[in-house]
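Design a sequence for this backbone.
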């Protein structure tokens, strides 16, 4: 019995680590897409960073939903998770915009540095919320 328990704990730990690595990969790709799109929008097309950023993160969030659902958390119950994802996106959208605006408009940090700092600040919180609230389809028995 003790051997099975240890095997399950090891397997669970390995899956959690694997999920974290997959989340990191999706996050890196998504954030690189944001950085590249911001560079094009601001430096090549001349848009203001505070106008380009909200549009770009909406497009990236859509891609992250499908990547997180299929690749990271391997949860395919779209009927349950889609509304939870939308709720999380709305909250993180305003957090992202608020923090980004604070960095760029108030503190006067460079716009790409502000993107990176935003990722570092909100990324861990987003992983926790996605794992516990959005893509967790386990029923809780009280």
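Sequence:
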């Amino acid at each position: 019995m003790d051997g099975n328990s240890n095997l399950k704990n090891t397997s669970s730990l390995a899956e959690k680590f694997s999920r974290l690595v997959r989340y990191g990969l999706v996050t890196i790709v998504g954030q690189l897409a944001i950085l590249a799109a911001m560079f094009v929008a601001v430096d090549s097309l001349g848009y203001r960073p505070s106008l380009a950023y909200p549009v770009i993160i909406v497009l990236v969030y859509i891609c992250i939903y499908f990547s997180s659902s299929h690749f990271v958390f391997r949860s395919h119950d779209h009927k349950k998770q889609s509304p939870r994802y939308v709720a999380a996106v709305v909250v993180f959208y305003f957090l992202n915009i608020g923090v980004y605006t604070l960095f760029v408009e108030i503190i006067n940090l460079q716009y790409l540095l502000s993107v990176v700092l935003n990722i570092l600040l909100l990324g861990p919180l987003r992983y926790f919320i996605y794992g516990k609230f959005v893509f967790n389809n386990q029923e809780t028995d009280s």
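The two ends are 27 Å apart (CA to CA).
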